[in-house]
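General statements about sequence and structure are easier to judge against a single worked case. Part of our work consisted of pairing the sequence of a single chain with a tokenised description of its backbone. The amino acid sequence and the backbone structure tokens for this protein are reproduced below.

***
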Amino acid sequence: MSEALTHEIDDKRRDRITLLLAVISCFTVMNVYYNQPLLALIAHNFGVSITTASSIPSLTQLGFGLGIVLFVPLGDTIDRRWLILIKLGIVAGLLVLVGLAPNLLILAALSFLLGVFTVIPQLSIPFAAQIAPPDKRGRTIGIVMSGIFAGILMSRALSGAVGTWLGWRAIFFAAAVLMVLLALAVAKYLPHSGRSTQLNYWQVLRSLPGIFRRQSTIQAACVTGAFLFCVFSVFWSTLAFMLAGPPFHDGPWVAGILGLVGITGSAAAPIVGRLADKKGPAYTLGVSIFIVGLSSIVLVIFGESMVGLIASLILLDLGVQAGLVSNQTRIYSVLPPSYNSRVNTIFMASYFMGGAAGSVLGGAVWDHFRSQWALGSLSAVLMSIAFLMHIWFQHRIKMKAAAAAEDRLTLPADDLEIQREPAA
């Protein structure tokens, strides 16, 4: 958003824009996750194995990560409102094509492209961070992130129910109509953001490696975020298979209903944001890793009962949501607002790469062991590594901050942009 427009927005209008961004993020992020509860139906439809069907959500998430790298940096160089509108139109068309896919190969290719262009939530987050005052940034990001997380979870409920009664293709046609409605709302209510830097697209892309290399806080957020979302995907990419087999023998609609249970985690996002504003996001991140680790232990011990499965799910969604809000709050505090889209690009690309890895790992482990115990053990190991990395990065950040306040520096003086705008 342009500097002048930012100052013109009062608190009431800022709250309305934030809510609109949360709604946009909620309904667009659903497109990435519709396929997960439908994997058993897709595998049966095309006559493929569980491992092969699990490649569909992996490709969607890999596409999402690539789309973040290719398109989200544009938010620093051109108007995000126009970017959102254009992408809503493209996504609507891709959803129709996914629903018409005649074989698994075409479905896989279209799912990858759908992920590439469904980066609209990652344009909304920097938008919200830029219009928020520093003392309310955690809360504002938490509201938009709660929309994203609610969308991730509601998508499973919707696709599971629709897939059970109307077949796996129907949800994609319905989603295409929803994208058109969202485009109308964006055109009417979302203000123009303007551009926040004078760099061109290629200069912005070239600055990404330098930002990552020199910012320990961003590195820490990328690593811990990737591990958290990896565990999240391990669970959710295999849930439909867990429920389809013994001892549950349930259909995809149950996986969808369980998604609604996980919305408790998204409801906690603004609370986590406020706590991060008060106690610091590093503290809430550590707590979130512990909660996700606890969910893994619950899955190991009680995963073959529905009560245990639900308890593990609630802890997982709460912990992952808390970790995501904590990391988002951290990364926007180390550089000026003109870097918001690029910082978000780096973080979310790594985040969804972790999610893609989790889908592959989860599918492979389930295909081999067919055991909640194995999935929980895998998740516990991943969270143990994440916790050790969190401690190591915190030590590294403190040492560097004590020596030279490294995390408050931007890029070296020979960077094109640093000559135009100083660090915060």
About this structure: The two ends are 17 Å apart (CA to CA).
